[in-house]
UniProtKB/TrEMBL annotation:
<comment type="similarity">
    <text>Belongs to the MAL family.</text>
</comment>
<keyword id="KW-0812">Transmembrane</keyword>
<keyword id="KW-1133">Transmembrane helix</keyword>
<feature type="transmembrane region" description="Helical">
    <location>
        <begin position="23"/>
        <end position="46"/>
    </location>
</feature>
<protein>
    <recommendedName>
        <fullName>Myelin and lymphocyte protein</fullName>
    </recommendedName>
</protein>
<keyword id="KW-0472">Membrane</keyword>
<dbReference type="InterPro" id="IPR008253">
    <property type="entry name" value="Marvel"/>
</dbReference>
<dbReference type="InterPro" id="IPR013295">
    <property type="entry name" value="MAL"/>
</dbReference>
<feature type="transmembrane region" description="Helical">
    <location>
        <begin position="52"/>
        <end position="74"/>
    </location>
</feature>
<dbReference type="GO" id="GO:0019911">
    <property type="term" value="F:structural constituent of myelin sheath"/>
</dbReference>
<dbReference type="InterPro" id="IPR050578">
    <property type="entry name" value="MARVEL-CKLF_proteins"/>
</dbReference>
<dbReference type="GO" id="GO:0016020">
    <property type="term" value="C:membrane"/>
</dbReference>
<keyword id="KW-0449">Lipoprotein</keyword>
<feature type="transmembrane region" description="Helical">
    <location>
        <begin position="128"/>
        <end position="150"/>
    </location>
</feature>
<dbReference type="GO" id="GO:0042552">
    <property type="term" value="P:myelination"/>
</dbReference>
<dbReference type="Pfam" id="PF01284">
    <property type="entry name" value="MARVEL"/>
</dbReference>
<feature type="transmembrane region" description="Helical">
    <location>
        <begin position="86"/>
        <end position="108"/>
    </location>
</feature>
Length: 155
């Protein structure tokens, strides 16, 4: 029986669905997509900071999708891929952490105005959900980055 894990230590094909840290691809899609959707569905009160949050969530969602399909297709067979995997997930952690903190700050600012109208209160509730999903995505990318770095060092 042929192994789906290559000499570089990276899985390909269906093995991506059963190995750590690659198992985190699916929850990263889910939580990253939820951040994107929740931020996009609210009326934008603070345009510039939410622009960064949208950039991070869309960038990481699209890039993780591309990364996932490269792994599924087996295009990760050269020796440079373990380092690239760890580097990408580290960058995603830094991006998502900055976006999460910024989104939490904006949500705190909305809280003061949330008692004024029901429309602002709805935006506040959606912002709270987006903050929770952003920090969950940050945690998932962080775990993935640590496990990818361990895999890179052991390969």
């Amino acid at each position: 029986m042929a192994s789906s894990v290559t000499g570089s230590g990276l899985p390909s094909g269906g093995k991506v669905f059963s190995t750590l840290p690659d198992l985190f691809f699916i929850p990263e899609f889910i939580f990253g997509g939820l951040v994107w959707t929740l931020v996009a569905s609210t009326r934008v009160l603070f345009t510039n900071p939410l622009g960064w949050v949208m950039f991070v969530s869309v960038f990481c969602f699209v890039f993780t999708t591309i990364w996932f399909f490269i792994f599924i297709a087996g295009g990760n067979q050269s020796g440079i891929w373990p380092a690239l995997d760890a580097a990408y997930h580290f960058i995603a952690v830094v991006f998502y952490l900055s976006a999460s903190v910024l989104l939490a700050y904006i949500t705190l600012n909305i809280k003061t105005a949330a008692s004024l109208s029901s429309e602002v209160f709805k935006i506040y509730q959606e912002s709270i959900a987006a903050v929770v999903m952003a920090f969950m995505a940050t945690l998932l990318y962080f775990i993935h980055a640590i496990m990818s770095a361990i895999r890179w060092k052991s390969s």
